[in-house]
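Q: Hi! First time doing this. I have a protein sequence and I read that you can turn it into a structure. Is that right? Here it is:
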Amino acid sequence: MAPNSSSRRRLRPNILITGTPGTGKTTTASALADAAQLRHINIGDLVKVKNLHDGWDDELDCFIINEDLVCDELEDMMEQGGNIIDYHGCDFFPERWFDRVVVLQTENSFLFDRLKQRGYSDAKLSNNIECEIFQVLLEEAKESYREEIVFALTNNSIEDIARNVETLANWVSSWNSTLYTKNATASGDLDCQYGILFFIGFANLER
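A: Yes, that's right. Below is the predicted 3D structure, encoded as structure tokens:
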């Protein structure tokens, strides 16, 4: 399928990085934003800072996100392009926003340890592990976006994250030259200067 009309208008691609909590979304998105000079938007943080929610859900231990307010807040930035959206859900974003949708996946043993370290309750921990086992986020992404832009990437280790960031940064560079046949003056910036392993190590795979 040809790129949608909004992707033709913007000069840089938009990427959605999604996955079960604990799969390394924020660490990966932050490293990729630095490597490819894109804007990283953490939806959880945005919702809190801008009050884009309908209160607190005691059972799920999180804010009740107001999806309409979030989309309204992001619309202009997404039309401009050059964004990485980082969130553990994906089905309410407009399909036209994204040029690549990345679903991060982590083995259950790693995921359990990460979520346990965050202090998740047994119920919340069990719910997230179950979501990962049944690949809920991958199925959600496939149902919400064109199949050819959805990719699942293993994200168990620092080495995995570095490799994924390099792959995605190279794709960003290729997207620019392919869609707009512009001179790749930024290619030096997109080498990713892969001291990324050190950057990610300090990030400690938080999300």
